[in-house]
Design goal:
The protein is mostly helical. It contains four helices and no strands.
């Protein structure tokens, strides 16, 4: 049982990090970048508040994979591994797709 709780807490910690990134995006006054080490030119963003809000939604949704994996860890360790694996693979692909949609919507070229 202790192993299940530890696994649950690890997944919940991961989910909390992504929720913190979402909160950070909401509170920023300059545009939120997606890739580490990059910057978004504020002059190229049509609506900075909307851009950051979309980023916050994106990261909050991504955290759902890990909240689900944490809950599943209490019931079935195999199911939690599958959920976490899907979050790392398919979830990340969906994250990039969502970012590209945000970019098309808010970034002026």
């Amino acid at each position: 049982m202790a192993g299940k709780l530890i696994t649950c807490m690890i997944y919940f910690g991961t989910a909390a990090v992504f929720c913190a990134v979402a909160q950070w995006a909401l509170r920023r006054s300059d545009p939120m970048p997606f890739w580490a080490g990059t910057e978004v030119d504020p002059a190229s963003v049509a609506d900075i508040h909307g851009h950051n809000r979309a980023h916050a939604r994106m990261w909050a949704r991504y955290s759902l994979w890990y909240w689900a994996a944490g809950l599943l860890a209490l019931v079935s360790p195999i199911a939690s591994l599958i959920a976490a694996g899907l979050g790392c693979s398919a979830g990340f692909a969906l994250l990039v797709r969502a970012y590209r949609r945000i970019e098309r919507t808010y970034i002026r070229r």
